[in-house]
Amino acid sequence: MQQKYYIFIGVVILAVLAGIFAYPNYFNKGTDFLNSKMGWTFPHFWEKPYVLGLDLQGGVQLVYRADLSSVDDKTGSMTGLRDVIERRVNMFGVSEPVIEIQGQDKLVVELPGVTNVSQAIEMIGQTPYLEFDEQRTEAESKPILDKIKEVQDAQAKKEDYKKIKDWQLATQNPYFKPTELTGKYLTKATVIFDPVTVKPQIQLKFNDEGAKIFEEVTGRNINKPLAIFLDGASIVDTSGDGKIDAQDLYAPNVQNKITGGTAVITGDLNTQTANTIASRLNSGALPVKIGSPISQETVGPTLGSVSLQKSLTAGLYGLLAIVIFMVVFYRLPGLLASVALVIYVALVLSIFKLIPVTLTLAGIGGFILSIGMAVDANILIFARMKEEIKQGKGLAQAIDEGFKRAWPSIRDSNFNSLIVCAILFTFATSFIKGFALTLSLGIIASLLSAIFITRIFLMVFVGQWAEKAKWIL
After folding, report:
1. Peptide bond into 356 cis (omega under 30)
2. Residue 56's closest CA among 360, 373, 468, 386?
3. Does residue 265 sit in helix, strand or coil?
4. Please, what CATH class does the domain formed by 59-136+175-295 belong to?
5. What CA–CA distances, in Å, run from 50 to 308, 353, 355, 356?
6. Rounded-to-integer distance, Cα 155 and Cα 415, Å
7. Which residues of 70-84 are buried (b: 16+ CB within 10 A; e: fewer)?
8. Radius of gyration of the chain from Cα atoms?
9. Residue 264 forms beta bridges with which residues?
10. DSSP β-bridge partners for residue 110
């Protein structure tokens, strides 16, 4: 008996924390009020914004068609192109962009929050720049490192670093400098396997002019690293932190002077890493060309704000209608189920923030639908409880049997819905993926709400007194 009260208290605490996390404004305003009146210094609750998609915060959607007429590996070329565009967009500073391949030759680029559309189009359409850089001498590195420190000190003091003489020197790589060898000379990068060790390697092939330059570059860098950069960044995540940044460097050592225009990159590579490197090298070699976007759709921030407001209003009305229905038809159990439903909403919104889930209109539609589906399980349980009570069983036994006998139907229906969500998420486009993701998360959370939270509420609030007032059930 004590255990159910401990669980109930835990559910209440979890619900309060989830509610505050989902919408911390009121809590933080209350904290500010108390701090100002009482002289306290209570901190604000953690604020983490929701990630809004293109249609809710405004932005631009661009659709490109790639020229695959002279390409054999169409899938690999499109994957490489997508990687390059994604890197460019990340450099542009766009939050939560969506870059995906559509069909065989189309690339869809969604840029939420972007207002300068022409600049975005210009940036995306640039030729990927692949370069092979050689190591600087200590004498060449020192002035660059000194200038970087000088600029950093000025920034720390909030001074205008652009007043420093030759401040542009600080923008250069202090350890590597460009060579004459660039991606325009590379014809193809291929993953091959060592016939003895069966380890993956990367074979590079240059054109005739590139072969001569490559011979010169490797000749003067024997036993030295040759760094490979694409658009100024490393072509692979060498630090293993899931992103390519300044900490990464891919610089295989030159073992000897290479002639003939063909080279092999060896090392501790797995197949996935080797394929990634080859794909990005091919991207720099321009296997696929894109011109101007064939389709451009712009959503203004005002329109996105209106769409968000209407979606939230629809969700609130939907929740209110469900609460009224449950209370009218199922009375006290319906009221308890409605409280569990409100907790469910707070939990799901918190999950959306934590993952985070990029919310679109379709995604919010999936969430609103999941609110309606969340009470399906309660309806099945309460209907079964009615039948058990009519058969003369006690209230505690009726609650137990209601949950036990309704579970197979609840399990099967929700499992089927999750299968459909998985299919939509796997094969559909971005907006439908958002719908499938929010709906599936909602379904999983609704099972917790109906089977666990509602049951705890019934065990705590519906006691022996209800045997004498069955009308309340």
Report:
1. yes
2. 360
3. strand
4. alpha beta
5. 12, 6, 10, 8
6. 56
7. ebeeeebbbbbbbbb
8. 30
9. 203
10. 61, 98
Fold for 301-472, please state it. Multidrug efflux transporter AcrB transmembrane fold (1.20.1640)
Polymer length in residues for the chain: 473
Distance CA 66, CA 107 (A): 8
Say how far residue 34 (Cα) sits from the centre of its chain. Answer: 37
Q: Per-domain residue ranges for the chain?
A: 59-136+175-295, 301-472
**245: three-class secondary structure by DSSP:** coil
Q: Which two tokens stand for residue 3?
A: 């255990």
Using one digit for the tens of pLDDT, what is the confidence trace for 366-379? Answer: 998 888 888 888 88
Q: Which residues, 6+ apart, have CB-to-CB distance to 428 below 8 Å?
A: 436
How far is 289 from 107, CA to CA, in rounded Å?
Answer: 12
Q: Report residue 287's pLDDT band, with 50, 70 and 90 as the boundaries.
A: very low
Q: Give residue for tokens 């038809």.
A: 329
- At residue 130, what are phi and psi to the nearest 5 degrees? -100, 130
For residue 320, with 0-12 CB atoms within 10 Å meaning exposed, 13-18 middle and 19 or more buried, which class applies?
exposed
3-state DSSP helix/strand/coil % of the chain, to nearest 5: 60, 15, 25
Token pair recorded at residue 41: 């210094």
For 451, the token pair is 């089977």
On the CB side of 5, how many CA atoms lie within 13 Å of its CA? 2
| pLDDT per residue as tens digits for the range 16-44 | 999 999 999 989 999 999 999 888 888 99
> Do 59-136+175-295 and 301-472 come out as alike in CATH topology?
no
Q: What band does 465 get if pLDDT is binned at 50, 70 and 90?
A: low
